[in-house]
Amino acid sequence: MSFASFAVVFLRNALGVPSTKIPIDGTTLVSYVLPPSVCYLVVALLAVTPQTRTVRVALWPLVALLALRAALSVDMSLGRTERKYLNIDLVFFMLTVAARTLYWTFAKEPLVRYLRPATSSPSTIMDALDLASNLRGHGWEWSGYRSYIPRDTRPANRMAFVFFAFISAVVHALICGALHRAVLTLVPVGATIPEGSTIFDETLPFPVQYLRASIITTLTALAIYAVLQMSYDLSIIPAILVLGQDPAQWPPAFDAPWRATSLSDFWGRRWHQVLRHIFLILGGYPLSLVLGRAGIVIGAFLASAVVHHIGQLTLNSQVEFWWMLVGFGMMAPGILAERAFRQLTGKRVGGVVGWIWTMTWLLLWGNVIVEGFARAGLFGCASFIDSSLPVRIPVEHLVIGFNVWLYAI
Description:
Layout: H1 3-15, E1 22-23, H2 26-47, H3 53-73, E2 74-75, H4 85-105, E3 112-113, H5 124-133, E4 140-141, H6 158-186, H7 206-241, H8 263-270, H9 276-291, H10 293-313, H11 322-329, H12 331-345, H13 351-376, H14 384-387, H15 392-408
Parallel strand pairs: 1-2
Antiparallel strand pairs: 3-4
């Protein structure tokens, strides 16, 4: 047995990780999921409390190990292959717990909150709860880190804001369901089985094959946007009605990403910024110590590739890392090329030419990312949204007709 294999076996035994994942139930929730979640809240409380750094440093290894134990032990899908995507959510949450508590651990001073509900008074407990749930850092001073906040056109009144969020959630659920159904109808048959396959249909001429795959990638990206927007809208409702938060604490999640005129504009402003700080913690900041400003960009996208690959592994343990490494990794050279262009010409990438450049680059490497997820079996997962969609049959007929046209070219 190699040292690496021995280390893995030893770690699994030390953490009490079962040989097969345990379906989620009340006992599993209390035994595996609750401990790292409670520790996460405790570290958040310590992060806003003065003179607690030593305690945070001592506590972090326990938090990280408990998060790892939960991610390796719990099956959120209850053994149903078509629900395996739920394990991605658990793994991403546990990664978030480990990464954010690591950042809080080494903060020299207590983290400072500067945005609170208008009618509230300072509270250490409420600050800790907000810190734990506030992935973007909006309203917080994180050593100079600030996430881009899009211009908000939603109503400022609390109840009107909640109603707007509800309508938005319904609309984006319908959009997501229609797009998901369209993708499942369009992808080759093998891509919808749990073992996964490819988005490229090799029976077609390569230009048509690539066009078809690019359409699948575009629809998939729009579906991801819709489901994330829906989830964000649904999170707003209890935050306002139950926790008493203000609309100002919930800025827009996206800023029309389809209008981006540069890669920097897309990733730095228009796409959601929820995971940006986590990618900076895991890759951007460490690599910047070696490569400077370029290291922030390269490291952040490398961290994104690793995190997305870990999500893939919950679907298929045999999927290769290079799909995510190349797909997300190539975003960094594109952004660095834009910076070089500005240094050489004094002009930013933008306008119509910038939009064409951005969408071409995103589609080129987006095909690699979506191909990776197809091979992992993502399209073999079911969605409760599209299965109950009232326009499911018309969507299928429309896509089937389009597919027939592609084959006739």
